[in-house]
Amino acid sequence: MIKLSDATLSQLPGNVQRPVYDRSRLTPGIVHIGLGNFHRAHQSWYLHRLMQRGLAQDWAIVGAGVRPYDEEMRRKLAAQDYLTTLIELDPKGSSAEVVGSMIDYVPVEPGNGPLIARMADPSIRIVSLTVTEGGYYIDPVSKGFDACHPDIRHDAEHPDMPRTPFGAMVAALKRRRAEGTGPFTGQSCDNLQGNGHILRQTVVSLARLSDPDLADWIDETCSFPNSMVDCIVPATGPKEIALAKEFGIDDAVPVSHENFRQWVIEDDFCAGRPDWDEVGATFSDRVHDYETMKIRILNGGHQVVANIAEVMGIDTVSGIMAHEAIRAVLHKVEQDEIIPHVAPVPGMTPESYVALIDTRFSNPKIVDTTRRIAFDGSSRHPGFVIPSIRDGLARGNPVRGLALVEAAWARMCEGTRDDGTAIEPNDPHWDDLNRTAKEARHTPRRWLEMTQIYGDLASWPAFADEFETWLNVIYRDGMEPTLRCYLEGAK
């Protein structure tokens, strides 16, 4: 077993790809905040592929985090020289590759002084983020900036000792303006419609609370490109560590991923960028159409099945797709209620994209858990499902299946499965959701009165009546019989 490090790269088995570039000659160009599995299997991999060609040697990644738990990841990665083993799980066979595009990780400290200093360094030209869909301080009702959040109030009052990644970005940009080193590009890589616009809104609005002139400078000089990212990347646990060992590698934090990646980016970088398009990324002025397809069909598709499967006790996404009724529900909801509101993109129709995600979700090598895709529904339903409901209502199209999806979420948040076993808390707002779900068991519309999630949808009978009926049927008959009713057109 080879302990992963720079010194042991030459000792790795011959069937493991490894960096062919001299990592000691790499210099930093990107700080990435929120360095989890997805980043290491996606953005880091694209950059690594460029480096394998002898390109982008001055764009190496410096990892970063702002929460205490990020320090554990930093220590694990530092112990193996920031290398990561990527394990591609293709149904035809697995393969392993060691990625070396990250060269450092900023110490995680209260006040984020080391992070601010690193982002203020003129060598850093891009600050990218994966901080989850719910991490951008968006007011749930107005969808604007949530200036009242305690973290935001703290950063506005203590701009030199921020808690949030956005406060750290503002502090670093303040230094760069004062020192004349210029702006950097802020690049969100989270699953948000218009993620660049949202990142701009958060950074500029936060800056305005403490320094309006700085806010104007950021808004005028920094760029925040929109992008769409796509790759299914399960969480790392004992199984993934064991997979790496099957390749002869002792890696404390390996990453497994499917045999598919996509990255579509708006070409708007104020301080330069790597040529990611040389290794498969797409620069396009139609990012909105690509991200709508992906967010509505794939991410929305995950929400269609996640809560149904949790209530039925099905643990994995491939297990979900092996269940005839759930798979049929997914296809019916996608076909009838989601893809009518999705435009085609070059080389891909909505119908062919549904077929693609069927194949991807069904990959038995990917042990992607139901719990992972069901996590943080309070952010994911408003972002991935409710826009399709609103489009359907606006155009007079059916929303019957999506009402069932929302009823299944309410049923899941009640906290028990059909077999009586407990569902562990799985949302940052679980206590509120669980309390409301228990009330909705007897008064279904109580669930839709969560205006921070549903807005005015409780007042739309075409949706609210369907929701109420489905939730009552689920409690009366159970989840699986309810699916059969939906597929048969009955109630």
Q: Which helices and strands occur, and which strands form pairs?
A:
Blueprint: E1 2-3, E2 16-17, E3 28-33, H1 37-41, H2 43-52, E4 60-64, H3 70-78, E5 84-90, E6 93-99, E7 102-105, H4 113-120, E8 126-129, H5 150-157, H6 165-179, E9 185-188, H7 195-210, H8 212-221, E10 227-230, H9 238-246, E11 249-250, E12 255-257, E13 262-265, E14 282-283, H10 287-312, H11 317-321, H12 324-338, H13 350-361, H14 370-374, H15 377-395, H16 400-413, H17 430-440, H18 445-448, H19 451-454, H20 461-477, H21 479-488
Helix pairs in contact: 4-6, 5-7, 6-7, 6-8, 7-8, 10-12, 10-13, 10-15, 10-16, 12-21, 15-16, 16-17, 16-20, 20-21
CATH C-level class of the largest domain is Alpha Beta
Distance from first to last alpha carbon: 58 Å
The major beta sheet can be summarized as: 5 strands, parallel
Radius of gyration: 23 Å
CATH topology of the largest domain, anyone? Rossmann fold
* Total count of helical runs of at least 4 residues: 21
Strand content bin: 5-15%
CATH architecture of the largest domain: 3-Layer(aba) Sandwich
Uncertain runs are: none
Count structural domains: 2
**Apparent shape:** globular
Helix content: 40-55%
Overall pLDDT confidence: 96
Could you explain the architecture of this structure?
- The protein has 491 residues and is of the alpha/beta class.
- The protein folds into 2 domains: 2-285, NAD(P)-binding Rossmann-like Domain (Rossmann fold, 3-Layer(aba) Sandwich); 288-488, N-(1-d-carboxylethyl)-l-norvaline Dehydrogenase, domain 2 (Orthogonal Bundle).
- It is 47% helix and 11% strand.
- The protein is built from 21 helices and 14 strands.
- It has helices at 37-41, 43-52, 70-78, 113-120, 150-157, 165-179, 195-210, 212-221, 238-246, 287-312, 317-321, 324-338, 350-361, 370-374, 377-395, 400-413, 430-440, 445-448, 451-454, 461-477, 479-488, and strands at 2-3, 16-17, 28-33, 60-64, 84-90, 93-99, 102-105, 126-129, 185-188, 227-230, 249-250, 255-257, 262-265, 282-283.
- The strands form 4 sheets. Strands 7-4-3-8-9 form a 5-stranded parallel sheet, with helices on both faces. A 4-stranded mixed sheet has the order 2-6-5-12, sandwiched between helices. Strands 10-13-14 form a 3-stranded mixed sheet, with helices on one face.
- A hairpin with a 2-residue loop joins strand 5 (84-90) and strand 6 (93-99).
- The chain starts with a strand and ends with a helix.
- The mean pLDDT is 96.
